[in-house]
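[job 0417] fold request received: LytR family transcriptional regulator
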Amino acid sequence: MRKKVRVIVCSLVVLGLVVIGGGVFAANYYYSKLDTTAALKHEDVAVDSSLTAKEKHSKVVNIAVLGIDQDGDGSNGRSDATKVISLDMKNKKLKLSSFQRDTMIFIPDGENGFDKLNHAYWYGEAPLTLKTLNYNFDLDITRYVAFNFNAIEKVIDAVGGVEIDVRPEEKKVTNDYIRSMNGASDDDLDAPELQESGLQLLSGRQAMGYMRNRYAEGGDFGRMERQSKVMEAVIAKVSDQSYLELVKLAEKCLPYVETNLTMKEIIDYGSAVLGFDLKNIEQTQVPQPDNGSKSVDYKGYGPFYIMKSYQDLVKDVHEFIYNDSDYQPSQTVIETEAAIYEQFGHVE
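[job 0417] inference complete; emitting structure tokens
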């Protein structure tokens, strides 16, 4: 079975540009190609009452972007890449937050309880993933874009590949993943393995092998960095595409996208993003690689990463996303942190 990390934000930009350029007919046509779901209200996804007006006051729109590993086994899959795109309308900036998939959190639904962040999608798809992010990090996310396993390979190939500087220690494991993906498919052309490290043009499958690599230096934090490098490279290439090239790209990638964004929201946000500098995206990892944590086994497998301070983690998230350096975590975050430490112990 293929196991890959697949997530790309370009569909928001692509669809926005296409519908703006093509008018109402194009908007309806391309929007119909998406797998659309119902809008989510604050109360549906555990947005704290103190945060319901955060978007209005901060002028920051948050959209969760989920890369789903479904493995063809009939399950919902896991969100092995969980990111939040923040559109800072006031300062005309696009920010990208990458959330570590193995972070110990509390899934606030039924009997799920303590678990890894990426398991929330497995239990309840996008709505529960948003609910889990909001509950544990005091966020206000009600919108999402999710990509299935075919999306990233086709998008990257459609833009002619991406240039990535592959470090020597990343090459071997990346090639292991490329061979695995080649062997799992008998209906397409195999991608060549990387012959050398250094700056080079990667095809869609080569880029997926590179992004899925979690065994090179840095572990899963290194993998998040690799995901972000590829995403930034794709966005830069998309922003340089002509209208006709964007139309072709939309045709290829939109059938693999699920979202609850309305057509009006896509047009509005796409219009706004046109005025952003997409070649200078601000990025962060949650938690930062140097954040104190410990690894534990739980439910028969691991690793689960327990943070030294979940309250400090939430403060860092709010400072990055909302430019709010004075934020104080909610009582929910305080109580969840205490419950985690009571069961698993503090980080020394």
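[job 0417] notes: The two ends are 39 Å apart (CA to CA). The chain has a mean pLDDT of 83.
[job 0417] exit 0
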